Amino acid sequence: MEKSFTEIVREQTTPYWEGSFKHPFIVQLQEGSLPIENFRYYLIQDSYYLIHFSELYRKVAEKTSVSELRTQMMNNAADLAKGELAIRANFFKDLDITEEEINLTQISPTAYHYVSHMYRQLVAHNAAIAAASLLPCSWLYFDIGRNLKNENVKSPVSIYQKWIETYGSEEASEALEKERALLNRLYAESKKVDQEMMISAFVISAKMEFNFWEMAYKLEKWPEGIKNDN
């Protein structure tokens, strides 16, 4: 029996997926030892990411001719608006992250490249491939939240604990199961070349998810280049 799309991509992304569970950003967030500066930087970069992520859901819905995919993408955009984006607004308020600070913070290379990667799938390929590039974000965050809850992790820092509690709900599990089943079906119905592109789009996004922790942990910035002193 041939493997499904989701089985294939999870096998190919193991070092980045399971690696995310063990990344110092996540580990220190659990322990409460993550510097608040890193969490603030993560939130600001994630704000840029989520604004575009929500827009990508809507653009995939506009592009697809598959009614189930259109409905899934629009539901995802609605859930993001009333869920994660709303919670992020509360985090900004709690940490006194102002609109001015967000605007003055340069978008990191990782955040920029991740968003650009997903837009590229939309422009260069079809809606199923673009949807495949969007799946790792919600799936990985769900897995992280579920694992932390299963381990009964309680961060001593209240805002870190609020972040943990954002993910891994039963409602999210049901929505993800439906989305994964849909992408498995679209993959099975696609030509070989499109199947390979769906896999590639997902795998790159999963790698970028791991890089996102790295970005926040190291406060990643663009290189300044080499100045000419002459």
Which keywords apply here?
single chain; 230 residues; globular; 0% strand; mainly alpha
What does this structure look like?
The chain contains twelve helices and no strands. The protein has 230 residues and is an all-alpha fold. The protein is globular, with a radius of gyration of 18 Å. It starts with a helix and ends in a 13-residue tail after the last helix.
Brief synopsis:
This protein is mostly helical and 230 residues long. The radius of gyration is 18 Å and the shape is globular. Helices cover 78% and strands 0% of the residues.
Element order: H for helix, E for strand:
HHHHHHHHHHHH
Based on secondary structure, the structural category is mainly alpha
Mean pLDDT rating: 92
Strand tally? 0
Tally of separate helices = 12
Global morphology: globular
**What kind of sheet is the major sheet?**
none
Beta-strand fraction estimate: under 5%
- Low-confidence runs (pLDDT<50, min 5 residues)? none
Specify the helix fraction band. Answer: over 70%
What is the terminal-to-terminal distance? 66 Å
Radius of gyration (CA) equals 18 Å
